[in-house]
Amino acid sequence: MRVLIIGGGGREHAIAAKVAQSSRVKEIFCAPGNAGINKYANCVDIGVMEFQKLAEFAEKKQIDLTIVGPDDPLVAGIVDIFEAKNLKVFGPRKKAAILEGSKAFSKDIMKKYNIPTAAYETFDSPEEAVAYLSECAYPIVLKADGLALGKGVLICNTYEEAKAGVRTIMLDKQFGSAGDKLVIEEFMRGREVSVLAFCDGTDIAVMTSAQDHKRAKDGDQGLNTGGMGTFSPSPFYTEEVHAFCLEQLYKPTMKAMQAEGRDFTGILFFGLMLTEKGPKVLEYNARFGDPETQVVLPRMKNDIIDVMEACIEGRLKEITLEFEDNAAVCVILASAGYPEHYEKGYLINGLDRIKTEDGCYAFHAGTKQTEEGIVTNGGRVLGITATGSNLKEARKKAYEAVSLIDYKNKYMRNDIGKAIDEA
Fold first, then answer.
1. Which of 193, 113, 92, 105 is nearest to 147 (CA)?
2. Per the confidence metrics, is the pTM higher than 0.90?
């Protein structure tokens, strides 16, 4: 098979590494890819939103399967365009990807079908939002309705903070048109868990659990980011929790989307909060999480091509997902200043010292190949992942591997998975 992967971040690097393990694959392309993905794939200079060019490339190269990584092209309908040309593609169609594309839509679905989530209200008017906030209990959560690179969520501790947050999202348009509509949500307390699942429109196959660290600084301080590191599995996601989630959250979501005429095929990401009153849905994503993918896929035993084809062909029931009885930790190496202002173009040293045979991986997120070597080219630069027999060992290995990499303005959190170490 010839496979095309769309995207150019750490998630797509992890997908490419997994696809490369398949005995059924002879050639991989990635558009646009990055300096690490080119180890497995031929990188093609086509942007993720250039749908016609991507489809023409897939036809010309006789691509057997296209895998869409990021949210933007999915929400904008890339799958529909590929399907119209009879090209096999893995990901949800536009009318299903709205589950991530609009937080207001996803919250309304949860309310309509009694899927446990936080209480909320939706606003088109900043004045009405501010009036509502004057009567709220704090802390409170503000969410830009649309896609905002995982950053469009503000947790506000006071009315003044919340009022400023409305201004930031709806008037200053910090997240662009994603902030045209605002969701105001009750603040839930508990453990966060990320759970990814393969879906074929009817059935769902749930992967192993993970936990992301969203805030930029140690101790969960600082601004929200796309994710500063992950570990898998979460010790808090027990068999009992899984059984509840399967019957009360996962299956009902699939059935709800079917009932709405929006059958979901692809990857459905459940952001969960394990509250005192039981697990609740924080958010949905319509694709692999980043950086959750970097700890989940290295632990998966299945041939990913077999699973994806089963999803597309509506026979996911035939697949039993299997994962290694181990653990993985991913530490994101970023550029100082991320998620706000940061500089690019610094030479990265030490990548050749990360060995996959040692259970360590350097997944490239924001890198670029130059004549001088590989340089930084984004806010999140690398995801250094390590596997171990347990979380403590995986964490130790990950931070040892991190110390082998050097570049100017290197920044990271030092406490990824630390709370588990100490538990």
1. 105
2. yes
- Locate 7 and state its tokens: 């995207």
Q: What is the DSSP string of 288-354?
A: --TTTHHHHGGGB-S-HHHHHHHHHTT-GGG----B-SSEEEEEEEEETTTTS-----PBPB-GGG-
Give yes or no: residues 313 and 334 share one domain.
Answer: no
β-sheet bridge partners, residue 386: 329, 360
Chain mean position to CA 36? 19
* pLDDT tens column, 290-301: 999 999 999 999
> The dihedral of CA 393, 394, 399, 402: what is its sign?
positive
Question: And the tokens for 323?
Answer: 């994962």
Q: For residue 231, what is the domain's CATH number?
A: 3.30.470.20
Residues 31 and 73 in one domain: yes
Amino acid at 57: F
* Torsion angle of C-alpha atoms 247, 248, 254, 258, degrees rounded to 10: 110
Query: Is residue 186 included in any domain, yes or no?
Result: no
Closest among 205, 195, 208 to 317, alpha carbons compared: 205
Residue whose pair of structure tokens reads 């700890």 in the numeric block = 295
pLDDT band for 269, please (50, 70, 90 cuts). Answer: very high
Please state, for a pLDDT cut of 90, what percent of the chain lies above it.
Answer: 93
Q: How far apart are CA 275 and CA 191, in angstroms?
A: 7
Same domain for 168 and 196: no
Interhelix angle for 159-166 vs 126-133, to 10°? 170
CB 420 within 8 A of CB 264: no
What is the full DSSP assignment across 283-304? EEESS--TTTHHHHGGGB-S-H
Residue 379 lies in a domain: yes
Around 179, how many Cα atoms within 13 Å sit in the side-chain half-sphere? 21
**Residues 202, 273 within the same domain:** yes
Report the distance separating Cα 138 and Cα 184, nearest Å: 12
Q: Which domain holds residue 375?
A: 327-422
d(CA 243, CA 218): 32
Look at the block and give the residue holding tokens 């119209």: 84
How far apart (Å, rounded) are the C-alpha atoms in residues 352 and 373? Answer: 12
Q: Which H or E element spans position 398?
A: helix 391-402
User: H or E element: which one contains 254?
Assistant: helix 251-259
- Confidence grade of residue 422 (pLDDT, cut at 50, 70, 90): low
Amino acid present at 281: V
